[in-house]
């Protein structure tokens, strides 16, 4: 659904008319510095907001978008954008990854003037919405720059007068008018390890959060180590998928060719170039297997390199670009094996979506991913591939790539052979134990 920005004056009037909510119903403000309907963390925000609203909670969203963007957010969400490519913020929206599926500003490239403009614009918007919406809790996506802005605004409000009805007597945040939690999507941790932009200010703010949500245990350990916070203050919530949309439709699968599907950004850090090279190592007739790549790109040089490698591949390589949600559902259900050869990930929800749609899966064995999948979805038809040696956060050692690509090819071949036994049908694996609804419930329970 297309969501337009709501007038703050009309919004404040409506909130004042309905300020007293039942204790079981919360008013929640979700904040992200980047587009709320693109990338994995954007989907995470949008879908948890959808589930919170379905559970009866009132939700407002602050997010960064470009001047002419009209983002898609769930019906019932109140949206208050911070617009980039404007006089106040004369540069593209910032991206948590250095390579985004749309044109974005890299945090590492921001000047002090850009940072000041970013802080000023988000601080003004956050303060306005806090005073108008009077949330019971704030959730900041990414433990990064906008999280520090939100924490500082709440601290400033602690020293000011506000509506007495705003503060909940059981608030764990003391003098702040409401608690603030942050949730990591791993790209924030990568930014903090790769460069020093506003590092001390971000660290200070994160340490003063009322709580931190992590995707899995390995990420929790990294958060504790990086920020030196109490492990008891970091809670694992996991990820989810839309159990209403991502369902198997086995009639869409063909017996020949078998289809391998990749969904994500088309860039080197996602292992896409290695995936195409690994495909050339498959021990099958090129007419019996095809590779489908779904996703956008922002680095033209990296994308051109992937296209060049694909031209020399013996197997068909199909580039579908970014697709709609409906077309993504269709792509999963037309595929037999899903592959995610990334060199860096948080907790990739695309893997869960693929499993829910009846695909087998091949993924790199990155920290935290395998334990979470094996605990949350025991017996899932997933093959794990040891990644190459990684330098920094997502740069593979070149000498390790041929062996990695052979391991990837071997795992794909095994999964394709299994899929070929019943090519017209999905796996039938039950993923309903993991959904956005259950994730939203876990998140809200932490806020009470």
From TrEMBL:
Presence of the UniProt keyword Nucleus in the record: no
Molecular functions (GO terms): glycosyltransferase activity
Ranges of residues in domain Glycosyltransferase subfamily 4-like N-terminal: 39-240
One GO biological process term: lipopolysaccharide biosynthetic process
Keyword field: Glycosyltransferase, Transferase
UniProt xrefs under InterPro entries: Glyco_trans_1, Glyco_trans_4-like_N
One Pfam family of this chain: Glyco_trans_4_4
Gene3D superfamilies noted in UniProt: Glycogen Phosphorylase B
Matching SUPFAM superfamilies: UDP-Glycosyltransferase/glycogen phosphorylase
Domain Glycosyl transferase family intervals: 256-370
UniProt protein name: Glycosyltransferase
């Amino acid at each position: 659904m297309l969501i337009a920005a709501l007038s703050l004056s009309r919004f404040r009037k409506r909130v004042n008319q309905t300020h007293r909510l039942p204790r079981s119903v919360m008013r929640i403000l979700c904040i992200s510095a980047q587009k709320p309907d693109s990338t994995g963390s954007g989907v995470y925000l949008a879908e948890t907001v959808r589930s919170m609203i379905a559970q009866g909670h009132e939700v407002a969203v602050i997010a960064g978008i470009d001047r002419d963007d009209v983002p898609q957010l769930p019906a019932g969400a109140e949206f208050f954008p911070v617009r980039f490519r404007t006089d106040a913020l004369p540069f593209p929206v910032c991206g948590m990854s250095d390579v985004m599926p749309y044109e974005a500003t890299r945090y590492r490239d921001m000047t002090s003037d850009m940072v000041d403009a970013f802080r000023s614009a988000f601080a003004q918007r956050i303060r306005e919405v806090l005073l108008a919406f009077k949330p019971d809790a704030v959730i900041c996506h990414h433990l990064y720059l906008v999280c520090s802005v939100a924490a500082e605004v709440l601290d400033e409000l602690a020293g000011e007068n506000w509506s007495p009805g705003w503060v909940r007597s059981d608030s764990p945040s003391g003098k702040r008018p409401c608690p603030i939690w942050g949730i990591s999507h791993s790209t924030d941790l990568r930014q903090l390890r790769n460069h020093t932009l506003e590092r001390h200010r971000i660290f200070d703010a994160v340490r003063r959060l009322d709580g931190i949500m992590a995707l899995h245990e390995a990420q929790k350990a990294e958060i504790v180590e990086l920020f030196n916070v109490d492990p008891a203050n970091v809670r694992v919530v996991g990820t989810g998928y839309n159990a209403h949309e991502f369902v198997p439709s086995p009639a869409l699968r063909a017996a020949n060719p078998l289809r391998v599907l990749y969904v994500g950004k088309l860039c080197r850090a996602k292992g896409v170039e290695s995936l195409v090279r690994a495909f050339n190592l498959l021990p099958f007739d090129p007419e019996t297997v095809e590779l489908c790549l779904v996703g956008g790109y922002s680095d033209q040089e990296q994308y051109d390199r992937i296209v060049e490698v694909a031209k020399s591949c013996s197997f068909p390589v199909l580039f579908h670009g970014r697709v709609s949600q409906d077309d993504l559902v269709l792509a999963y259900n037309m595929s037999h094996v899903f592959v995610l050869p990334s060199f860096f990930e948080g907790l990739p929800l695309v893997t869960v979506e693929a499993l829910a749609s009846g695909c087998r899966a091949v993924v790199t064995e990155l920290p935290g991913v395998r334990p979470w999948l094996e605990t949350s979805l025991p017996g899932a038809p997933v093959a794990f591939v040891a990644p190459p040696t990684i330098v920094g956060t997502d740069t593979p050692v070149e000498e390790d790539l041929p062996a990695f690509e052979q391991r990837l090819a071997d795992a794909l071949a095994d999964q394709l052979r299994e899929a070929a036994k019943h090519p017209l049908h999905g796996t039938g694996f039950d993923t309903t134990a993991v959904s956005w609804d259950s994730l939203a419930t876990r998140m809200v329970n932490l806020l009470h």
